[in-house]
Amino acid sequence: MKSLENHQLQTASGDIQAREFRTSWFRKLTKIREFTILLVIVVLVVVMAIMTPSFLSVDNIVTTILSIVMTAIVSVGMTVALVSGGFDLSVGSVMSMAGVVTGSLALNGMNIWLAAIFGLVASVCSGIVTGLFIGKVKINPFIMTLGMQGVIQGVAYVVTQGAPLSVTGVSNSFLFLGQGNILGIPVLIWILAVIVVVSDIILRRAVSARKVYYIGSNESAAFLSGIRVSRVKVWIYIFTALLAGISGILTLSRFSVAAPTAGQGMELQAIAACIIGGASLSGGEGTVLGALLGSVLVGIVNDALVLLNVSVYWQSLVTGFVLIAAVTLDVLAHRKKAS
Amino acid sequence: MKSLENHQLQTASGDIQAREFRTSWFRKLTKIREFTILLVIVVLVVVMAIMTPSFLSVDNIVTTILSIVMTAIVSVGMTVALVSGGFDLSVGSVMSMAGVVTGSLALNGMNIWLAAIFGLVASVCSGIVTGLFIGKVKINPFIMTLGMQGVIQGVAYVVTQGAPLSVTGVSNSFLFLGQGNILGIPVLIWILAVIVVVSDIILRRAVSARKVYYIGSNESAAFLSGIRVSRVKVWIYIFTALLAGISGILTLSRFSVAAPTAGQGMELQAIAACIIGGASLSGGEGTVLGALLGSVLVGIVNDALVLLNVSVYWQSLVTGFVLIAAVTLDVLAHRKKAS
Amino acid sequence: STGTSTASSGSSGAFHGSANETYYMVTFLSGIEYWKGVYAGMQAAAKDLGVKTVFTGAPQYDINQEVTTMQQVIAKKPAGIMVTSINAQALTPVINQAIAAGIPVISFDSDAPQSERYAYLGTSNVEAGQKAADYLGQQLNGKGEVAVISTPGELNLDQRVQGFRQEMSQKYPGIKIVAVQNGNSDQIKTAQVTSALLQSYPGLGGIFATEADEGTGAATAVKEANKTGSVKIVSFDTDKATLDAIKSGEITATVAQGTWNMGFWGLMDLFTIHHNLLTPVANWKQSGVDPVPPQVDTGVTIVTSKNVNAYLSK
Amino acid sequence: MEQKILLEARGIRKVFPGTIALDGVNLEIRAGEIHALMGENGAGKSTFLNVITGSLHPDSGTIRVKGVDVTFTSPMDARRNGIAIVHQELSLFPEISVMENILVGMTPSRYGLMNRREMAEICDKYLRRFEVQFSLQTLVRDLSVSQQQIVEIVKALVTGAEVYIFDEPTSALSVDDASRLFVVLRELKAMGKGIVYVSHKFDEIFQLSDRISVLRDGRMIGTAPTNELSSDDVIRMMVGRSLERIYPAKGSPGEQLLLQVKELNAGSKCRNVTFDLRQGEILGVFGLVGSGRTEIMRALVGIDARVSGSVELDGKEVRIHSVQDSIRHGLYYLTEDRKQQGLFLSMSIRDNVSVTHLTNLSKGGFLNRTQAAEISASVIRDLRVKSSSDQQLVGSLSGGNQQKVMIGKWLSLQPKVVILDEPTRGIDVGAKSEIHQLLRELATSGIGIIVISSELPEIVGLSDRVLVVHNGTVAGELQGDQIRDEIIMEYASGLHSSAAG
Ligand SMILES: Nc1ncnc2c1ncn2[C@@H]1O[C@H](COP(=O)(O)OP(=O)(O)OP(=O)(O)O)[C@@H](O)[C@H]1O
Ligand SMILES: Nc1ncnc2c1ncn2[C@@H]1O[C@H](COP(=O)(O)OP(=O)(O)OP(=O)(O)O)[C@@H](O)[C@H]1O
Ligand SMILES: [Mg+2]
Ligand SMILES: [Mg+2]
After folding, report:
1. Which residues form the ABC transporter domain (chain D) (predicted)?
2. Residue of chain A whose alpha carbon sits nearest to that of C241
3. b/e per residue, D142-170, with b = 16+ CB within 10 A?
4. For residue C250, pLDDT beyond 80
5. Tell me, what's the pLDDT at D2?
6. Which of A231, B330, D69, D454 is 20 to 30 A off residue B33, Cα-Cα?
7. Are residues D140 and D74 in the same domain?
8. What class has domain B34-338?
9. ∠ CA A113-A117-A123 to the nearest 5 degrees?
């Protein structure tokens, strides 16, 4: 391309600016997908604030955010898998396995931080296996991660023989992660914030992360463009597993308990959060912000169910209904925009 | 085309015959996908027969088949959804809802057969709602059926207030469905056989069912070719829900119990069975035979776990492992064929 | 370790089985901690008797899975089966099928009373719920607001809730059950629900969690709200995490069931029936007399900081 | 002066199940030449290009880059060796912006993050050569096929390669865009780059290329300097015989009006469109890229919602609210976007052809397989689809043969009116004249035919009457000896828009 630069192309810099201007306007438009969900959230908050005064109390807000920290962290990882056109059903079991491995090493006398690193390493290993089978052997992600769900869950069961591990007497610095406060806000929320912001920047701007979008949008074109698709896929599932592992260790730190059943059903919650936030199962689409908003929406609905004292027998009905309503609204809003 | 026939193109009829010959050879090749799974099944059976003599006893065979009847019936419906490029996470809850509706109507004095028809009607209604939202409003099938899972499960909970309904004193003819034998073989197995054979023929040869493959292969091309895509989609989810409903009512007939928790996790089992049998989450592929074989494979593995006295803490690990191994084998076998 | 165990040591004489004699324990939700207590008792008895035991079951909360597992176990013609029923009605035919095949069956923890099982060993879950209500009622001096966290749809848990409600309304009219919430047998979900409950009911005095993970989840949420001690938590079962939480004061008490006894005496019943060691009447089989006590209450203990050490050292 | 040889392929052989796609093909590309590669549909051109760019592994043969033997294990290897390709089938990323599409695999970055400013500058430099109307942030899925083709070309240009390979780049381009491309190609040539150019358009080839190589049935027939060849020579090399005439004689349409479209309005690309079609007539529709030809037809057949307007068939007003309605009335539309909207790539030829026949092929609800086989056999025979059997997956056919299958699926029905949007895109000379012949015969048998084409010669040669579209509306209607290049172009560029009628 350098050799072409000699050509005097009449490039008025004003023209580029005009285009940049159009660009920022356009970017706003594309963001509207997330805006609809934001709108739904705002409406829900207003309705709830009117119906129950305690809803907008600082305590309740903190509580609600705290309740979605794990889902949101896992959803960030899931977003990447979804963007690539795959997904990961094993996140829930990786979560429990990471906690269980960390916990049982700590109970056997290992320093808890070292144990946590082993927990993360175990998560990453499971991510590598998943990624290699999906990326290199080209096993369908659904069946591979469903299989891994069984295998990893199995590891957690074998390690604990089914019993939750009570991890007591570990260093306070570790417990601070899940139980401490900084500036009056739980550390867990700070951690979530950091993960979201960093991942959002990476996924939006890092060259390496953009490859995931290319793969999800058109895998064979990505391959033809020289992207090492299978290698990127391995990284994707490592990332997903790593975040699941982090969330498992944070769960351990929060509850001082590592249960082999922790994280059950997390996979569906996380996928739901991502899709509510605009990700697509067919790949190429999805943002960290969307995943966060999706998690928040689900969190608010769950909170509202309790605050409004909805009977447990009605809760799943109401949740399902709100889910459908929110996404329908989103789809209809976009359809109008399109026409 | 008739107007084209005047063109004297040198087409020797011998050439056409050669083509036909190659065709039948080709068709055999495409069937190999299911052959690999069949092979895996055969190997498993042989290994198991050697390891535990009771494996090939009539009792055990009947037990194993009986254990997969419900999964297999649901998988047949799921196949159709998968072929169209969608899927249905609500099948498990439709299953329990159908049983619960039938059961509670019967307990309130309605004739059990009439009650069962109401149960099926309720299933079909849920299928219509799902289908309309997916087909007409164009909601993502994942989120729609996840939402419906909540809603329908909620209906089952509300109807029963969480407690399983013990349905006793109903007509023997109804119980015969789930508990009777014909020629020494449980009626349930006969029912499964009929459903599989009929659905297989329909999906392979019926014009209306072929449309599902077209939609799954390229939705917009199907639309432009005159296929009423959204209407077909409504039918797809009706079919899926209907089979889930049938399986719920058969469950009721088999156990005389309608539990709101029946069918939990059925959706993943069914999808797994279909994918093991060669269906693809991206649509266009999948057969009834494949779904059946996938269910059988899972059934045999579960049976083997018990027969081999595998520790309960190791079971999910082993199941996951076998799942991955079977599919990996399948993929590798095909890759060799392709190269 | 595996679910199979054999014992070589053991007494001789009538109470000595053969090494290829295998007794099964079949459960639903087989991965959970709870059954381990039962199986420990069963293994202890097996060791004394010199027989083999196998623990198997349905990993999921799924009727079909448990019935299938029972059928598969029956096909292996074991010396006896201990079973806990996910659903009484659904398990009855298959239990009867085992009896008809000459395999003695003992029911534990969750009964199938209409079946032909020889005996049921366990505490009624209703009664356990009542005991929890008694304890919490006393702690709260008979007044205040309490909440229940359970997993709806699971029969044994529902029965605990039922017992709790009954006892509260009869004995402690001053205590109001303000909410029954779904903790989904999961810490994270329970923590979320509990936090929200603490928001809605700032004066909440007690929580009854019908399941161990729900107990620790509720304890964490209460701690996060800085209300440890002022909200009394009564949990269920005696896994290490719960016991540790009792020791640290985060959980006030837990309900311990006589799981070890269910296993031990259950196997004893099976063994004696299998070896035909019992003659309450001549020809009990033909005359339809039950050779073993048909209903055995294995008891309920409330574990608090006072007696927790006994359980911790177990 | 002997030019430097940039790329050399020797004895390339590639076998697919059922086809020998390449059989000992030799080719050399010199610095500063535009080398045309020609051949019938399915001759093996794309396969050959895929081999020398690392997307396919040859069964045997060697590739040398600047005299050094190389083995490409992936497209990246070829790229590293300075070979860039514009694939025949679009390989873009629909959900991603134009800018990121262009710079895939070579995004400028700082600290691992994309440098958007630099990206914009790089893209802009080439995009402006094509005077495009979309922004760098537009998602590719919102572009028309021709706009996507431009993006695809720019994507190759920014790589700064030594050898550029273009596989039918102009099949979806307007004349204007094509000529802008040619300017760029000549610049590249002047810089000493090597260019391989595949096209079925003879005028382009003779205007542009320095040498021509011809493939037939996977074998290299020969290479010769362009100025030593006539188009008849090339055709003879391609098909092994000479073709007599390119366009069939024009017909004499009847007086009876078959289709009348009045005041059709649907969005900004379809405004007040009024025209009619007589029985037995071939109506050519011409317009520049983005003039709205496709949109008008989509609105006509009910794919896009209509704001106002009426459609009469055989003098009776028909309600067309959906594609199904138009199909029911015997009004068929053949899309220009065969990959996204036309074909079922993962299904067989037979399945693709029978999709439009589902109702007539139904015997008691079941598919009549014998009849389906007959139909697909006749499509394969009449359109000369090069395939191993009617069970071959359409996705594995060559581009031109895919196009033939798509045409076959509609023409094997009995239409009243058929609208073909760019029907001969990517189709070789021989097959093209056969399709023209076929269209003429259909017309003679009383069917009304509308052909949208971006190829002026095709419009001029084939049409009985020409409709020129400009900016979403009918700018002019030309008949008889008015149908001439200059006049059509005048209307198309909006010079006569006031004189519409
Ligand atoms: N993946 C494949 N599997 C089987 N056959 C294939 C495959 N790819 C190409 N072919 C066959 O190889 C032959 C050459 O195809 P190719 O695409 O190279 O033709 P082409 O010269 O580019 O034609 P066109 O002008 O139509 O683009 C065709 O007969 C085609 O059907
Ligand atoms: N999916 C789409 N979303 C937004 N705009 C579109 C879309 N498809 C096409 N357009 C716009 O509509 C206009 C007309 O499209 P198109 O280029 O297909 O017209 P045409 O006259 O049929 O030209 P050609 O057939 O040569 O491509 C273009 O300006 C294009 O930008
Ligand atoms: Mg080609
Ligand atoms: Mg067009």
Report:
1. 7-242, 255-496
2. A166
3. ebbbbbbbbbbbbbbbbbebbbbbbbbbb
4. yes
5. 57
6. A231
7. yes
8. mainly alpha
9. 145
Q: Which residues of A touch D161 (CB under 8 A)?
A: none
Pair D349, D383 in one domain: yes
User: What are the tokens at D338?
Assistant: 């065969």
Residue A87's SS3 state is coil
* CB-based contacts of B83, cutoff 8 Å, min separation 6: B203, B212, B213, B216, B279, B283, B284, B285, B286
Assess contact for C132 and C234: CB atoms under 8 A: yes
Q: Is D138 in the pocket of ligand 2 (CB under 6 A)?
A: no
pLDDT at position C3 over 50: no
Return d(Cα B109, Cα A171) in angstroms, integer: 63
Nearest alpha-carbon partner for D266 in D314, D320, D318: D320
Q: Does residue B50 carry a pLDDT above 80?
A: yes
Of D365, D369, D441, the CB nearest to B3: D441
Residue A38 tokens read as 């934001």
**Residue D294 near residue D266 (C-beta atoms within 8 A):** no
Give the residue numbers spanning the domain of D342: 257-492
Can you give the CATH number for the domain in which D427 is found?
3.40.50.300
Give dist(CA C93, CA B18) in Å, integer. 60
Burial tier of A292 (Cβ tally within 10 Å: 0-12, 13-18, 19+): buried
Q: In this predicted model, what pLDDT tens digit does every residue of B110-134 receive, in sequence order?
A: 999 999 999 999 999 999 999 999 9
In this structure, are D278 and D211 located in the same domain? no
Q: Do residues D277 and D463 touch, judged by C-beta distance below 8 A?
A: no
Q: Look up residue B303 and give its two tokens.
A: 């049976």
Q: Which residues touch C143 (CB under 8 Å, ≥6 apart)? A: C172, C174, C175
Q: Where are the domains of chain A?
A: 34-338
Q: What distance in Å separates residue A151's CA from the closest CA in chain B? A: 4
Q: Using an 8 Å Cβ cutoff, are A302 and A319 in contact?
A: yes
pTM for this entry: 0.86
Pocket test for ligand 2, best of D98, D134, D144 (most atoms within 8 A of CB): D144
> Half-sphere exposure (CA, 13 Å, Cβ side) for D355?
34
Q: How many residues does chain C have?
A: 314
Task: Give yes or no: residues D157 and D191 share one domain.
Answer: yes
Q: What is the largest CA-CA distance in chain C?
A: 65
Atom of ligand 2 nearest to the CA of D287: 21
Kindly state whether residue D332 falls inside one of the protein's structural domains.
Answer: yes
Whether residue A228 is predicted with pLDDT greater than 60 in this model: the reply is yes
The count of domains in chain D is 2
Q: Identify the chains in contact with C, defined as 3+ C-beta pairs within 8 A.
A: A, B
pLDDT digits (tens, 9 = 90+) for D95-139: 899 999 999 888 888 888 888 888 999 898 888 888 888 889 899
Say how far apart CA B220 and CA D303 lie, in whole Å. 11
- Residue B280: closest C-alpha in chain A: A140
Q: Which of D177, D232, D167 is nearest to D198 (CA)?
A: D167
Alpha-helix runs per DSSP H in D334-398 = 349-354, 369-382
Other C-beta atoms within 10 Å of A117: how many? 15
Q: Are residues D232 and D261 in the same domain?
A: no
d(CA D287, CA D456): 9
Residues D232 and D270 in one domain: no
How many whole angstroms from its chain centre is CA C55?
15
Residue B128 DSSP one-character state? H
What is the rounded distance in angstroms from the CA atom of residue B236 to the CA atom of residue B82? 10
Helix residue ranges, H only, chain A: 13-51, 58-83, 91-107, 112-135, 141-160, 172-179, 187-205, 207-217, 219-224, 229-255, 266-276, 288-307, 312-338
D106 and D192 in a single domain? The answer is yes
Q: For residue D194, is it within any domain? A: yes
Tabulate helix, strand, coil % of chain D (nearest 5).
35, 25, 35
Write phi, then psi, for D37 (nearest 5 degrees): -115, 120
